[in-house]
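Example S7 (structure tokens).
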């Protein structure tokens, strides 16, 4: 084992030595100085792991620049700041953990406050609100911590482990060793503050664009002049459009015709033929099929949005490119997203997704849906909602219930303890969690904003209209509620701050899905994991996997065409969406060349986030399968607390400890196959 560690350290040193030079001039520390320094430190700290010392010195040297000091000063620094005993290392770890919690938590509080006008319902934001929202309070944090050498002390004593190393070694690590490794993840690049700030501005601009992308449904009409939707219905793209489409699988007037119209609206958003002036503006009447527009009954000609949607994606890509120059180990946004953020390679993700998309179970479930609907399938049937018990209930009845129960955010917040108790949490635990969750009325569709310090709350944001919380808003709120429970448990109840969180966002999405599926249980109806639940998870996974592949392939295209214009990107995205559709969806749902898979707003405001959803669905099913074996709701709550205090291990390590098996589509496919066999399909 010691020899293996030495080989690892030598390879790491070579990697950093070869990749040190960047646009800032790179490291000034020679390999000779590194070798001599390591030898001296090994003699200085005979009780410490010599391979780990070599690893820390090599990584610190790779990021040491001329402004940090001479080679001699580097050697003197590491000799002074190496923790030479296990006790000294533990004390340093505790000090750094506490400091990072203060820094991260305070920066998060500042960001929450500065973006308040942009994120929460209220008066239209002023120009200064947008400027403040783009400000990143921690943009200079990394620069500052390198400048005063706190970063170098951290790197030296808590070096970075690659994903391969974590997967190979992590099974034998203690909780403290995992926390040490996560501290090593903090300083792996040295990105200038101006570059970080530029990236934050690009994301903020994209978020603001998406948050205001409302379709005035009451102003839509068929080509023969009929209005299908209530006059006051306003739906945010894509989330509320999708949810309205799903609600029309119930027995409601004009259900199929409404779905067709929403589908046409979505197509026009993707290809940007939607008239720009009809977005978030009730002054115009719009016929989505003919694309004609009217004002006060008179026909008017309005310009199409063109390629604005894709300008925001392109701007984010260019911001990522600037980061690439300062990330030699993970030199693309794609690599950083999958290998660092998700800790699953893009190739692994694609293989996982294609395995399910190509499975025979897809056609078998589609045949069942076709039989239930009594018609040929259409592209939007990727959102078929008939595997949920609520689909048999008209949404207006559910909305009447939720509006009466939750007239405002305060009412929802007041009901959180009861909801948690209905899931099996004790009265004490329910109050403990509820006290750490704040509910706020969102300007957009809603989201969960977690805390970073153990003195601030998680924030549940959901859209609540003047008449109260409609069912769509309630369903989204329960999803975000699941995020908040995760965010609270694995922050406040974690044993080491550096293990705060989950392996990647797919794992928080999994709990959000688990809560969301129990939304009717929280209203007093019964819930159980049955065949319909399994089919619902499967069909939702099938849908979002295609969307995710479009997102992934789009970023691959961007890196292959770095000088592309927004118009060229638009055409490429439409072509990619059609190709994925024709390969995995046309054989099941029909319709050649549908661009529908590119409609998700996440592609614009949260780059490469979408793969977390299907990955989360896979995790969700394995968790649901495990939770279904528990005897009662109290056991459910106990299991949720145990699982979501495992913290930020790697995905496969987390899953093995959570449910006893690694992440795989096989359990879901096998379950669906058994259900279809039983149904004779």
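Recovered sequence:
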């Amino acid at each position: 084992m010691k020899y293996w560690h030495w080989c690892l350290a030598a390879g790491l040193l070579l990697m950093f030595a070869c990749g040190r030079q960047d646009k800032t001039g790179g490291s000034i520390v020679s390999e000779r100085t590194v070798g001599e320094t390591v030898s001296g430190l090994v003699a200085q700290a005979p009780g410490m792991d010599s391979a780990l010392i070599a690893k820390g010195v090599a990584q610190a040297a790779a990021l040491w620049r001329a402004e940090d000091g001479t080679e001699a000063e580097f050697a003197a620094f590491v000799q002074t700041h190496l923790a030479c005993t296990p006790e000294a290392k533990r004390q340093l770890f505790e000090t750094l953990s506490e400091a990072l919690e203060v820094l991260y938590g305070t920066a998060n509080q500042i960001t929450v406050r500065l973006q308040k006008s942009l994120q929460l319902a209220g008066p239209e934001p002023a120009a200064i609100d947008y400027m403040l929202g783009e400000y990143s309070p921690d943009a200079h944090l990394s620069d500052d911590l390198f400048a005063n050498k706190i970063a170098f002390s951290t790197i030296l004593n808590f070096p970075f482990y690659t994903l391969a190393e974590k997967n190979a070694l992590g099974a034998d690590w203690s909780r403290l060793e995992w926390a040490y490794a996560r501290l090593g993840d903090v300083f792996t690049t040295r990105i200038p503050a101006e570059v970080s700030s530029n990236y934050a501005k690009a994301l903020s601009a994209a978020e603001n664009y998406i948050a205001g992308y409302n379709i005035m449904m009451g102003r839509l009409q068929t080509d023969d002049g009929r209005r299908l939707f209530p006059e006051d219905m306003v739906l945010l793209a894509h989330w509320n459009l999708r949810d309205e489409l799903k609600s029309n699988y119930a027995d409601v007037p004009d259900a199929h015709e409404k779905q067709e119209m929403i589908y046409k609206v979505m197509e026009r958003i993707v290809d940007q033929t939607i008239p720009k002036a009809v977005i978030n503006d009730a002054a115009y009447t719009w016929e989505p099929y003919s694309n004609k527009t009217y004002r006060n009954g008179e026909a008017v000609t309005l310009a199409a949005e063109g390629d604005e949607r894709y300008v925001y994606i392109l701007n984010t890509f260019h911001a990522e490119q600037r980061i690439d120059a300062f990330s030699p180990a993970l030199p693309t946004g794609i690599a950083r997203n999958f290998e660092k953020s998700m800790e699953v390679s893009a190739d692994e993700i694609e293989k996982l997704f294609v395995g399910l998309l190509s499975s025979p179970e897809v056609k078998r479930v589609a045949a069942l849906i076709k039989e239930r609907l009594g018609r040929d399938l259409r592209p939007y049937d990727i959102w078929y909602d008939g595997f949920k018990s609520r689909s048999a209930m008209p949404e207006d009845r559910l909305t009447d219930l939720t509006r009466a129960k939750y007239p405002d955010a305060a009412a929802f917040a007041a009901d959180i303890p009861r909801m948690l108790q209905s899931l099996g949490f004790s009265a004490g635990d329910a109050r403990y969690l509820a006290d750490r969750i704040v509910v706020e009325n969102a300007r957009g569709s809603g989201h969960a904003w977690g805390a970073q310090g153990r003195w601030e709350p998680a924030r549940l944001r959901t859209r609540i209209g003047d008449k109260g919380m409609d069912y769509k808003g309630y369903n989204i709120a329960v999803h975000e509620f699941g995020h908040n429970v995760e965010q609270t448990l694995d922050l406040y109840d974690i044993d080491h701050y550096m293990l705060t969180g989950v392996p990647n966002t797919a794992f928080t999405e999994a709990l959000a899905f688990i809560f969301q599926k129990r939304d009717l249980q929280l209203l007093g109806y019964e819930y159980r994991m049955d065949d319909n639940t399994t089919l619902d998870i499967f069909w939702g996974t099938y849908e979002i996997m295609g969307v995710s592949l479009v997102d992934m392939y789009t970023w691959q295209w961007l890196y292959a065409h770095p000088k592309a214009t927004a118009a060229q990107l638009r055409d490429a995205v439409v072509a990619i969406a059609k190709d994925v559709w024709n390969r995995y969806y046309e054989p099941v749902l029909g319709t050649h060349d549908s661009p529908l898979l590119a409609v998700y707003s996440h592609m614009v405001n949260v780059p490469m986030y979408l793969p977390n959803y299907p990955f989360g669905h896979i995790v969700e099913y394995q968790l649901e399968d495990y939770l279904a074996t528990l005897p009662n709701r109290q056991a459910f709550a106990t299991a949720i607390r145990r699982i979501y205090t495992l913290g930020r291990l790697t995905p496969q390590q987390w899953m093995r400890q959570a449910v006893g098996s690694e992440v795989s589509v096989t359990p879901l496919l096998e379950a669906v196959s058994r259900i279809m066999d039983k149904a004779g399909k």
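Notes on this example. Residues 324 and 461 are 33 Å apart (CA to CA).
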